[in-house]
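Protein details
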Amino acid sequence: HDISIFDNRDQAGQGKKDKKQSLFDVLDIVAKHDAYKQERVLVVDDESFCLTASKQVLKSLGFNDDFQVDCCISGEDAIKDIRQAYQRGYRYRLIMMDFNMDGMNGMKATSLIRELFVEEFRLVREEQPKIVGVTGHVLDKFAQ
């Protein structure tokens, strides 16, 4: 898996990708910060194998997959789950978002999630979770 950080800063939803790193490098950095372990992680992927693999990697880094890692299979479900979690007082520190899903893709979901945090929950950027884009594709068009 390669990883890029979705960083939608404008209202038009244009994505800006920061530097590309391996998934394990990013998760290792996250695991070293205890603050991340105290909050929830949301994994969004329409492939059950990828969801399972992501949960296993997070578990090996010290995350408790029963209480700290939530999973959903679409961008639409992610928006619904985030809304429900925040209404119940839960906070996501990290969202791992698949780039290429049926229906709403990861870029569109990320844009709508950013809007949700601003419009509905009134969170400034620093209060919002990091959203990390993940893809299993190794084609050049996905690496750009």
Observations:
- The domain at 2-6+22-143 is CATH 3.40.50.2300 (Rossmann fold).
